[in-house]
Structure formats: structure tokens, C-alpha cells
Design a protein that fits this description.
Blueprint: E1 7-18, E2 21-32, E3 36-41, H1 47-54, E4 64-67, E5 70-71, H2 80-84, E6 87-91, H3 102-112, H4 118-131, H5 147-159, E7 165-169, H6 177-194, E8 197-201, H7 205-210, E9 214-219, E10 222-225
Parallel strand pairs: 3-8, 3-9, 6-7, 7-8
Antiparallel strand pairs: 1-2, 1-4, 4-5, 9-10
């Protein structure tokens, strides 16, 4: 049976908190396998807080708050690492470990998520670097890479455990337009070829026009499907 269109995230009447304050009320959101989704809005409108709720960093309150089969309203602390293996998170500032090579950064994540066999880790690293076009840079240090190359490595890192959802928080914010386009084309290819749901937080309307998807707009303490 095909998994296309399988619901991965279901929020019904969920309040989103930013710290101790509620920043978005009554959020309804549904993200399925194969979806390409934008969350947009002004600075401080709650975009990143939604991502932090999805990853169980922020508490979820509401009628339904399910992500990859986990109920965020009642998830236990020991279950959170298992939830996060279904998610690939990508940040604007890359967050690569500066003292490790590209390969070392990826190997660090695999070891931390339970990959015990060195040959299996090496094979998986090769697969994800090939997917993002960075195979020849595996022995480089992060400071030897351009911003676009560092972002490609961070995408490879997010792909390591074959996530069902990629969550990218302003992934092109520090990149020039040409590099940003190459990163967006990579997201589109991953979405199209692997069926991975992609959720991008951005304020860049040009990206949304060039690479169409579902658009959720955050404003006035609400987030609604455009």
C-alpha cells in the first residue's frame, strides 16, 4: 500500500508557546507525506515556536497534537529522542561542530543515535553526502567550506536517519540568491524523490513564488493556511 499522503503531523486547536507566553492560539495544521510547506510571518510571530513544539522542545496544549505517531500532549521524556529520529532539523546557522571534519560531524550524529557498526555508518555517510552533492568534501573542516556547502552538510546530517519530516528554520537566510536557489532545488528533489515532507520557515516571498507549496501565515497570534 502506498504511503503517499499519509498524515505525519496533525494539530487541532493547539496553543503555541514562546517561553511562558502563548504566541499562537488555536493552530490547525495538517502535514502529510510528500507535502512541501512554508510557515511565514513577521519576526516574533511564532514561526520558530511552532518548530520547537513539533520537536517537543515546547509543551503542546490543545485538542490534537500528533507528530509521527506521538501524542505531544502526553509524550514522556524518554520518548522524545525516538520522536526526533523521525525529524530532520536544519538551522540557519548550520550548527556544525568546528573541530570535526564533515565526515566526523555526520559520524557523531550516527553514533549518538545508536548506529554501532562502523561500516554501516560509513556507508550511510556516503549515501547522504552523495544525495547533497558533497561526496568529495567529506574530509574538509567546516571552516574550509562555503556557506552553501555548510548548509548542504547540515541537510545531509538531517537526512542520516531517513526522517519523515524535514524542518528547516530560515535555511537560506545567510545565503546569496544563487546559493539559496541551489539549496531550495535540493529540498524539492528530496521531497519529490523520497516523499519526505519538507517544512520551511521563511520570510522570503520570492522563494515561495519560485518553489510553490502550502503556505501557513503567522500574524495576530494566529497561524492559518493561506
Amino acid at each position: 500500500m502506498s504511503q503517499a499522503g499519509k498524515p505525519l503531523l496533525i494539530f487541532e486547536s493547539v496553543d503555541i508557546k514562546g517561553g511562558d507566553e502563548t504566541v499562537i492560539y488555536d493552530l490547525d495544521m495538517c502535514i502529510s507525506r510528500g507535502d512541501f510547506v512554508y510557515i511565514t510571518g513577521r519576526v516574533g510571530s511564532g514561526k520558530t515556536s511552532i518548530i520547537r513544539t513539533v520537536t517537543a522542545e515546547n509543551e503542546a496544549c490543545g485538542k490534537v497534537a500528533q507528530v509521527c505517531g506521538y501524542d505531544l500532549r502526553s509524550i514522556k521524556r524518554r520518548e522524545i529522542p525516538r520522536l526526533r529520529r523521525h525529524l530532520g532539523v536544519i538551522f540557519q546557522d548550520f550548527r556544525l561542530l568546528s573541530e570535526l571534519t564533515v565526515e566526523g560531524n555526520l559520524d557523531f550524529v550516527l553514533k549518538a543515535t545508536g548506529w554501532k557498526q562502523a561500516k554501516a555508518r560509513e556507508a550511510r555517510i556516503t549515501e547522504v553526502l552523495d544525495a547533497v552533492g558533497m561526496t568529495t568534501k567529506r574530509h574538509r573542516m567546516p571552516h574550509q567550506l562555503s556557506g552553501g556547502e555548510q548548509q548542504r552538510v547540515s541537510i545531509a546530517r538531517a537526512l542520516l536517519n531517513s526522517p519523515e519530516i524535514i524542518l528547516a528554520d530560515e535555511p537560506t537566510g545567510h545565503l546569496d540568491r544563487q546559493t539559496a536557489d541551489s539549496i531550495m532545488e535540493l529540498f524539492c528533489r528530496i521531497n519529490r524523490e523520497q516523499g519526505t515532507a519538507v517544512v520551511l520557515v521563511t520570510h522570503d516571498s520570492t522563494l515561495m513564488e519560485r518553489y510553490p507549496g502550502k503556505v501557513y501565515v503567522c500574524e495576530n497570534e494566529k497561524c492559518v493556511l493561506k
